[in-house]
Amino acid sequence: xxxxxxxxxxxxxxxxxxxxxxxxxxxxxxxxxxxxxxxxxxxxxxxxxxxxxxxxxxxxxxxxxxxxxxxxxxxxxxxxxxxxxxxxxxxxxxxxxxxxxxxxxxxxxxxxxxxxxxxxxxxxxxxxxxxxxxxxxxxxxxxxxxxxxxxxxxxxxxxxxxxxxxxxxxxxxxxxxxxxxxxxxxxxxxxxxxxxxxxxxxxxxxxxxxxxxxxxxxxxxxxxxxxxxxxxxxxxxxxxxxxxxxxxxxxxxxxxxxxxxxxxxxxxxxxxxxxxxxxxxxxxxxxxxxxxxxxxxxxxxxxxxxxxxxxxxxxxxxxxxxxxxxxxxxxxxxxxxxxxxxxxxxxxxxxxxxxxxxxxxxxxxxxxxxxxxxxxxxxxxxxxxxxxxxxxxxxxxxxxxxxxxxxxxxxxxxxxxxxxxxxxxxxxxxxxxxxxxxxxxxxxxxxxx
Length: 449
Ligand code: ACO
Fold this sequence. Notes:
single chain; alpha+beta; Peroxisomal Thiolase, Chain A, domain 1; ten-stranded mixed β-sheet; three-stranded mixed β-sheet; 37% helix; binds acetyl coenzyme *A
């Protein structure tokens, strides 16, 4: 099979949001901290009516319906998530109820978990399968999604919720450059979920930022090494027409574009000094000594500002409006890029992708969009993503007080049995799956609005 990649993509986010400026006032922090300091506008969240299984059911069914697919066309289904409601039964198997009427139960793949990286692992598994000897000629589907919520404190504003589903196959309009991957994995306790009775992570926020930035450096350097050996090609930020990043909050992504520029600068300082003479005295800095250097961070955010606007800003639509969707964050970035682009502006372009999951696992890889702007699959992807802004606009705004109350209900009932959720089904969008009941055997039953 040739040109394996993304054939279609769908995104689902909850219908509730809280405004970040209102949250600043509610939390008693300085005005501007969440909105300007972290670059966040609104944050999506769900009531106890939604869990990882319902989010996944909703987005998968949406992918199938909006692309006129039948369930017997799918030979592999992989789920990436860190929102665990069952230590044994996978979300993948829950999704198999959607396949029932088709009679197709021969579907490989299962869940993978490592913080925000699971979606990327699921994607790589699916791409590898289609490219391999064990491929049976059918499509693969990747579902990734999470409910990102934090206990009271400085991390709470960096939550979010949502899911993406991607159809993977040959002759795709968005082709993965499978041989070009740079990864960095290590053992670190920056963000983890050791408390099985809580949905909330244990977070060392500052450490997580250093780990993220170190991973940007390492993955970028390794991607460049691969390109040098495999393609005999020298890589710079300009090799990428667009660049999506895992987005815990938008400001970190802007800083990461600056970080890639710092990497480029240290290899070819002259190119930058001509335009920014103040960089002259930074040409000998040791990159490993700059992780907490605010001056360097600010300088390279300024130097890379135009690149950020051209290549990355548009991909932050969902990150700014919904927040961190964990495994779905990077793919929500890709969907955002499709939502704000035309086929003409993307045809023939290379899209850089940086995935980071705490703990930690990270990869930088890339897609190549087909050259032909009249490619019907590319147009279909663009058209399907076009409703994202309107869907964001039509969500229901909730006050910070009610947001906190909603989280308290989730906290109290997180692992309950004999439980019927109390959240409204009225407020859900048509087509949304929701949790109807958890019975005495902890079996979860879902209905669709
Ligand atoms: N106006 C404008 N900016 C302000 C204001 C203000 N009034 N007040 C503060 N700021 C700025 C700060 O200067 C800072 O920006 P800078 O770093 O560019 O200088 C920014 O707002 C945030 O302020 P901090 O004091 O650094 O924030 P705090 O330490 O309280 O929390 C953090 C931030 C660590 C990101 C926290 O939200 C967190 O732990 N989040 C979860 C962890 C996370 O998302 N990690 C990312 C990778 S791992 C993952 O994806 C889960």
